[in-house]
């Protein structure tokens, strides 16, 4: 026997179904009326116009962005022979004491400028995600240049280990280049390799048959839990020697390769209970000089086999030193 409550419930359900059906019929009648009055066509046209305007707006934003990129790229191409970030004109004489004083004078300025530039360059980026931007140029002097900026997060390692791995790859680049590419890379004797700075004179016989030489000074600094709230971080700056009275460039026998690289290694504060991450930020410019005496057969290959900071060359060796580290992407 059906109770009064069940009867009312069943009647309510039936009325709701009728209401839904009536609403569908009403919507159909409204649509037919709009069709008869031509309103559907008008609404469609209005939507088409709105979509066209929206498309033009989005396209205009893309074109404005492309124009900005073109302006920046054009400026970069025209400025290849000007001083780049943290690049200095380095001239070393014959006196060992004078050479050491010149480099000591440069150290703090180079490292401070490197830290400031990389902080500014990466300010708007999500440092927990990998990012890389690379440009390649042939200058009006027919020199070949590669400019690269990147940020790479690293998990599972501390700041000091990552920084020492990065510094070690630079200071021992002749070993790494020979191992990974099978080329003959030789580090010629230099006068300095201290905790303050190092001079690296490298000669590489590449697989293309070209001999590439470079003369680079490297400055580094590691700050352990600084008082400025930054925590522990390391900064590295390397720059090429413009003129060396003791070891002049042998432009009639070798291809000259200039390189300027700055690196900042710092710890990111953990969020939402996640483990701390270390982020490596790097900017580098490499330039291969072309001359009538020495013909460059393949500038990309010659840069790759003569510079540890070219592309991802150092990645393999740094990962070997950070066995327990897990990277979110290719390490620099």
Quick overview of this protein structure:
With 332 residues, the chain is of the alpha+beta class.
Write structural notes for this entry.
Helices cover 41% and strands 28% of the residues. It is an alpha+beta fold and 332 residues long. The protein has helices spanning 4-37, 39-78, 96-121, 159-171, 173-181, 299-304, 315-321; strands at residues 91-92, 131-138, 144-155, 184-188, 197-205, 211-226, 231-240, 243-244, 255-268, 277-288, 326-327. It folds into two domains: 4-69, no CATH class; 89-327, 2-Layer Sandwich (Alpha-D-Glucose-1,6-Bisphosphate, Chain A, domain 4). The radius of gyration is 31 Å and the shape is elongated. Residues 324-330 have low confidence and may be disordered. Strands 2, 3, 4, 5, 6, 7, 9, 10 and 11 form a nine-stranded mixed sheet that branches. A two-stranded parallel ribbon has the order 1-8. Keywords: Coiled coil.
């Amino acid at each position: 026997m059906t109770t009064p409550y069940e009867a009312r419930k069943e009647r309510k359900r039936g009325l709701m179904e009728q209401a839904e059906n009536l609403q569908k019929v009403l919507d159909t009648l409204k649509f037919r009326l709009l069709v008869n009055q031509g309103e559907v066509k008008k609404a469609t046209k209005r939507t088409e116009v709105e979509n066209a305007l929206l498309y033009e707006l989005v396209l205009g934003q893309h074109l404005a962005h492309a124009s900005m990129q073109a302006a920046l790229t054009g400026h970069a191409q025209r400025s290849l022979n000007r001083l780049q970030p943290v690049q200095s004109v380095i001239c070393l004489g014959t006196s060992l004491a004078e050479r050491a004083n010149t480099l000591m004078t440069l150290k703090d300025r180079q490292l401070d400028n490197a830290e400031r530039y990389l902080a500014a360059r990466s300010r708007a980026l999500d440092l927990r995600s990998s990012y890389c931007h690379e440009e390649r140029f042939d200058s009006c002097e027919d020199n070949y240049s590669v400019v690269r900026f990147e940020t790479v997060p690293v998990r599972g390692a501390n700041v000091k280990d990552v920084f020492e791995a990065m510094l070690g790859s630079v200071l021992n680049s002749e070993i790494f280049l020979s191992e990974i590419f099978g080329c003959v890379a030789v580090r010629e004797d230099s006068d300095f390799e201290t905790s303050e700075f190092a001079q690296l004179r490298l000669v590489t016989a590449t697989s293309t048959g070209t001999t590439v030489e470079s003369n680079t000074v490297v400055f580094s600094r590691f700050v352990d839990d600084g008082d400025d709230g930054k925590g522990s971080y390391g900064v590295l700056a390397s720059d090429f020697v413009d003129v060396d009275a003791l070891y002049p460039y042998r432009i009639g026998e070798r291809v000259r390769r200039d390189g300027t690289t700055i690196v900042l290694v710092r710890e990111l504060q953990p969020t939402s209970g996640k483990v701390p991450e270390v982020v490596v930020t790097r900017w580098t410019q490499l330039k291969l000089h072309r001359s009538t005496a020495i013909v460059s057969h393949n500038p990309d290959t010659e840069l790759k086999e003569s510079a540890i900071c070219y592309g991802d060359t150092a990645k393999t060796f740094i990962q070997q030193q950070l066995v327990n580290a897990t990277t979110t992407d290719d390490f620099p």
